[in-house]
Write a structure and sequence with these properties.
Elements lengths: L1 E8 L6 H4 E11 L6 E5 L4 E5 L1 H34 L10 H5 L1 H4 L5 E4 L3 H14 L3 E5 L8 H11 L3 E3 L15 H12 L3 E3 L10 H12 L3 H6 L3 H6 L17 E4 L10 E6 L2 E2 L5 H10 L4
Parallel strand pairs: 2-5, 5-6, 6-7, 7-8
Antiparallel strand pairs: 1-2, 3-4, 9-10, 10-11
Helix pairs in contact: 6-7, 7-8
Length: 297
């Protein structure tokens, strides 16, 4: 369930050190669901269905494993501290997994929690509160059969920022509004909950501006808030707003220039600058286009 650390990078450079904006931004946790339903079983490569009782039992079992891991990490920290103050204690074998969890338990590194149904979201928040760790929520904005105003008020109260998954989606319940996922960003903006958009697919990252546009067209999100959810708010959520996310003196010169609204599919990006350096907008696709455009019949 804990798949490793998230990193913030610029999309230019030859090494991770050159590209890195923040080498460790969060620890990623796939929160186990306690809500039954249809799911895909990769072991049998078929669709299966579980009851709510079975789902809760499986969730509690997996959470117990995470709690045990956190307890081991705290014990490891105590042992390391004791060894530093008392050299007579036996040497402690280095455990990289437990060492990597220390910034999380110290409140320096948030947990990036993936949970979709609001019942799972509430359980995830309760889990993080009990463990005294910071949380960033990743959600597909469906939230199950719950009023968006209730969801937004809860997230506001708990001070939980949200990264929304793709807006190219449909609600999970048959009787939900068809545009329920697209309505969620506006509800959070109204409540004052910081959020950002994500493509969640390297092949679809080019569509990131249009994810925000879906929330504007079908969810009533203002264009200003949509633009912030692509720029300043994600920088704030990930703790790098002092360097990127807005055009201000002293920040990195990460800029782009378009010939129209950046959230319109017909808009072309004319210039891109990363850390003040102009980035060539060439690719295999543009090279092929130029080659065949100039081809003599």
């Amino acid at each position: 369930m804990i798949s490793g650390q998230a990193v913030i990078t610029d999309l230019d450079g030859f090494t991770i050190e050159q590209m890195s904006v923040k080498p460790a931004a969060a620890m990623v946790l796939k929160f186990p669901t306690g809500v039954g339903g249809e799911f895909f079983d990769f072991q049998t490569f078929s669709l299966k269905r579980s009851s709510d009782a079975d789902a809760r039992k499986n969730r509690d079992k997996k959470l117990d494993e995470v709690i045990a891991l956190f307890d081991r990490a705290r014990a490891y920290a105590s042992a390391v501290a004791a060894r530093k103050t008392d050299a007579s204690l036996p040497p402690l074998a280095v455990d990289l997994k437990l060492a990597a969890l220390q910034p999380v338990l110290a409140g320096e590194l948030p947990i990036f929690v993936a949970a979709d149904d609001f019942r799972d979201v509430k359980r995830a928040v309760e889990f993080c509160e009990k463990q005294n760790v910071k949380m960033i929520l990743r959600s597909d904005a469906k939230f199950g059969p719950f009023d968006l105003a209730v969801v937004a008020a809860f997230l506001k109260e708990k001070k939980i920022p949200v990264i929304f998954g793709p807006m190219y989606t449909l609600p999970s319940e048959d009787d939900d509004r068809y545009d329920l996922p697209q309505q969620a960003p506006a509800a959070l903006a109204k409540a004052g909950v910081p959020f950002a958009f994500a493509s969640e697919d390297s092949a679809m990252v080019k569509d990131l501006p249009y994810q925000a546009a879906m929330a504007v067209a079908y969810g009533g999100l203002s264009k200003d808030d949509a633009l912030k959810a692509l720029t300043l708010w994600p920088a704030t959520i990930w703790g790098v707003a002092d360097r990127i996310g807005s055009i201000e003196v002293g920040k990195q010169a990460n800029l782009f220039v378009t010939n129209g609204d950046p959230m319109e599919p017909r808009t072309d990006v004319k210039h891109v600058f990363i850390r003040g350096r102009s980035i060539p907008l060439t690719s295999r696709q543009t090279q092929l286009y130029d080659a065949y455009r100039n081809r003599v019949p």
